[in-house]
Design goal:
two-stranded antiparallel sheet
């Protein structure tokens, strides 16, 4: 049965052991890899080929703890057969053109050249066979290189086009790009294909003066109708920034801040940070967030960032391991901001219609909140008037919060005092009031013990 790449991805995720402490990180790695190879998985996501992909991704030797060795995996995909972790032979059912595309994406130049020449020789034999047997192949009957290259690569993506023209000794650059360094043009093709292996290849080929922040921003902020920068591309840029010796700066902190400043200037928000959080890459989200200058984050934008973070936590499988990195980024986002940011976010939790509150309730219901001290701290920061608002507009959320002892004792005492003094803004039916006070009193007594 033919499967889409998302269906194949689900099967590949099954190669991760359920009790693997790196499950969240490995899931992220396989999702990134599946997206990069989505055209191949779409084309070959069938029963006979799926075992080949699974054999590679389940083999520990292609993992560096929680990171995939993407280059080595690319090389394995070019083989006709491999041995799985148990030593059993597994056949690769991909055709030569698929291998050619993979070698172009990964910039395995010699392998790609060899396949290109095989395709060219095959085409020449086809032309020769159209003429009388035994007659020499005339120059006019040989492969017309430009037509051959176009037929081989047209519609197959920027990198396949780039390498096909390169092997055919034809300049692939258009008139407006004629003066561009060929490796700089190759980098643009790699960015358009969103293939980080190729980005790394052409980046290393650039002259030193071209390895600057502007070039990295072109990678990290890539956006077109066909796609935008992936988290892999963003991480590539962050890693290069950390190698500050490549730049004419005293330290990488200046570069990180400039990186974020340029991102904000172009997009009006931190698109790179947003992408990393949405991908649940909490470690690198924290790494980037630490360099965010507070002047760029309005209370509204802060609330949106926190909401995205909660959404990612909410969508994690119940049996996943919530990493220390998740707690680290939450700590930076909560304790590293100004008081007015936190107050606005708490106001959002207590508002009449609050998607943020719904996300927190989902996290509580899944039992995840007690794996995070920061989340419990955030909820316990709700003041009396927040709690009263939640009670009036969302009784279900109120009951969940109070029954899980997530409200702080001081706020509950204030509520009890205001009820006793007829000063509470809580809307309580007279017939409910007695039971409400008994229940609230019992919770206060338990918390005081």
């Amino acid at each position: 049965m033919l499967l889409s790449y998302q269906d194949v991805e689900k099967e590949l995720l099954k190669t991760i052991d359920e009790h693997d402490s790196n499950k969240v990180n490995k899931t992220l790695e396989i999702k990134r890899w599946s997206y990069a190879y989505r055209y191949i998985l779409d084309r070959y996501g069938i029963g006979t080929t799926l075992p080949f992909f699974k054999a590679i991704l389940s083999d520990k030797k292609y993992w560096n703890e929680r990171k995939l060795d993407r280059k080595e995996i690319g090389l394995q995909l070019l083989k006709k057969t491999i041995k799985d972790a148990s030593g059993n032979e597994v056949k690769n059912h991909m055709d030569d053109f698929s291998r050619y595309q993979i070698s172009c994406w990964c910039c395995f130049e010699e392998y790609a050249r060899e396949l290109f020449n095989q395709f060219k020789d095959k085409r020449e034999r086809e032309i020769f066979n159209q003429f009388s047997a035994g007659e020499p192949l005339l120059p006019t009957q040989s492969v017309e290189m430009d037509k051959f290259v176009k037929s081989l690569s047209s519609g197959k993506g920027a990198l396949t086009i780039f390498w096909s023209y390169h092997f055919g000794n034809i300049d692939v650059r258009s008139e407006k790009n004629k003066n561009m360094d060929i490796n700089e043009y190759g980098l643009e093709c790699a960015i358009a294909e969103q293939f980080v292996e190729a980005i790394n290849f052409f980046w290393n080929k650039l002259p030193e003066e071209k390895k600057d922040l502007d070039t990295l921003m072109k990678i990290a902020l890539y956006d077109s109708i066909t796609g935008s920068a992936t988290s892999d591309m963003i991480l590539f840029c962050l890693n290069e920034i950390s190698r500050k010796k490549l730049f004419r700066f005293d330290n990488s902190e200046i570069l990180y801040k400039e990186f974020l400043s340029k991102d904000y200037e172009k997009n009006g928000y931190f698109s790179t940070l947003d992408k990393l959080i949405r991908d649940k890459d909490f470690k690198n989200s924290k790494r980037l967030f630490e360099y965010v200058e507070k002047k760029y984050i309005s209370v509204e934008n802060y609330s949106v960032l926190m909401s995205i973070m909660l959404q990612q936590i909410s969508s994690l499988p119940n049996n996943s391991f919530l990493t220390d990195h998740m707690e680290d980024i939450l700590n930076s986002m909560w304790n590293g901001m100004e008081e007015n940011h936190r107050k606005f976010f708490l106001h959002e939790i207590g508002s009449q219609y609050s998607p943020i509150r719904s996300k927190i309730v989902s996290i509580i219901n899944d039992g995840k909140i007690f794996k995070s001290k920061l989340l419990t701290e955030i909820v316990s920061s709700l003041e009396k008037y927040h709690i009263e608002s939640i009670f009036n507009f969302d009784r279900n959320s109120y009951n969940i919060f109070i029954n899980k002892n997530l409200f702080k004792l001081e706020s509950l005492k204030h509520i009890m005092n205001s009820i006793n003094n007829n000063e509470s803004s809580m809307v309580i039916n007279p017939e409910e009031l007695s039971n409400f006070k008994i229940h609230l009193s019992s919770i206060i007594k338990k918390m005081e013990k």
